[in-house]
Design a protein that fits this description.
The protein has 411 residues and is α/β, with parallel strands linked by helices. Helix content is 30%, strand content 23%. Helix 4 crosses helix 7 and helix 7 packs parallel to helix 8. The two termini are 17 Å apart.
Length: 411
Amino acid sequence: MKQMRPLTITGGTLVTPEGPVQGALRANDCMIAAVGGDAMPQDGDEIMDARGMLVVPGIVDLGVFAIDKPAFHFGGITRAGLMPDLSPPLDYPARVRFVAQSGKPDLWVHPLAGATKGLNGDQLAEIALMREAGAKAIATGRRWIGDSGLMLRLLQYAAMLDMVVVIHAEDGGIAGNAAATASEMATRLGLPSAPKEAETLALARDIALAEMSGARIHARQVTTRAGLQLVRQAKKRGVAITAGVTPAHFMLSDLALGDYRTFTRLSPPLREEDDRQAVIEAIGDGTIDVIASGHDPRGPEDKNLPFADAAPGMAGAETLLAMVLTLVRDEVIDMGRAFDLLARNPARVLGVEAGSLEPGKEADIALLDPQAPWLVDSREMAAAAGNTPFDRQPVQGRVTALWKGGVQIAL
C-alpha cells in the first residue's frame, strides 16, 4: 500500500530520541521527511491536527506468538517480531518467506528463524537460507537449547551471519513443567514449581557462550534479580547482550496466582515481589532494553483447565502500551525512554529502519492520548482470545490514530 499524498501532522508534541519536540512531522513516500521546525506543510498535503496529543512512533513488538491484527492496531503496534513457534514451526525458508509477506500492507511481520529443526534443540536449521527468505533474527523458541555444544555452534554461525539470537533463558532440565516459581505462594497453593535459578543458570551459560563466540544475543525475558545482575555485569564486560521483559513481570508478582486464575499462568512464571521490584529497577537503570507484549492468545480449550495443566501465555498486545505508561506516571522512566523500550530498541535488535521519529525512518506513526481512561475487559478484547492477566483493571493511555508507512490504518 503506497502513500498517495504527503502527510503533515501538526499541533502535537513529538516524542523523539532527542526529547519532546513541539512542532510538525511530515511524511512523504512512506518515509519521515522532516520533524519539528523543518516540517512545513506543502500544497497538496493531507493535514492532521494532533493538538493535545502525543505523536509517537509505531510500536515494534519483539517476540509475539501469533499475528493478531485487530489487537496490534488497537495497541499501536505497526511491526511484530514473530517467534518461530508456529505449527509447523518457522524452520524452513518457504515458511519464513510466506510469513514475512503475511501482514502487508498494514502490518510488517518480521519472522524469527527457528534455530533448530522442529525447534527440538538437536539439529541446526538452515538459518542462512531463512535469512535470505526474510528472517530478521534467530530464536530458540519457547525452550532453552540444553546442548551447550550445539548452542555454541549456533552462536558462532549467527556471529558469522551477523544475526541476533533471541534466547529463552530458562533451564528446561530444572524448570520442567513447573507452573510457578518455588516460593511460599507455590507451596501454599500446592502448585508444581521450579527454583528461579533455572533462569540464572540458563543466562550464565548463554552469556558465557556469547562472550566466547562474539555473537549478539537478546534474552527475551529476564525476570529475576539475579538474572538481571548477570545482564548488567555482561554489559559492563562488553558482551553484546540486550534484555527484554513483558508487563506481567513488572506489574504482577506470584501473589496474583492466589485464586488459581489460569490467565496468570505464564512462561516464565510470575516471580516473588523482590524480583518484580528488581525488574522495575532494571527498566529504570537501562539494564532492560525492550518491553514486549509476549502476545499469545489462548482460548478456553487451553485455559479452562486446572492451573498446572493450563497452557502458559497471555494476550498482551492491547495492554502493552497502557502498562508501560504506568511506569511513566510512576516516574520510573520518561516518555522518551518508554518509546525507546517499545519501538526504537526493538527496531535496532531486528535491524529495521523504524521505531523512532527521525527523517529517513519509515513513517510508522501513532497519535497517543496518554490520559484517555479505559477498562481492560477480556470479554471485549480485539484479540483472538482474551486471556489477559489484567482483566478488569482500569488503565490510561490509548492510541487514537495510526499510520503504517504514512498510510492511515482504520482502528
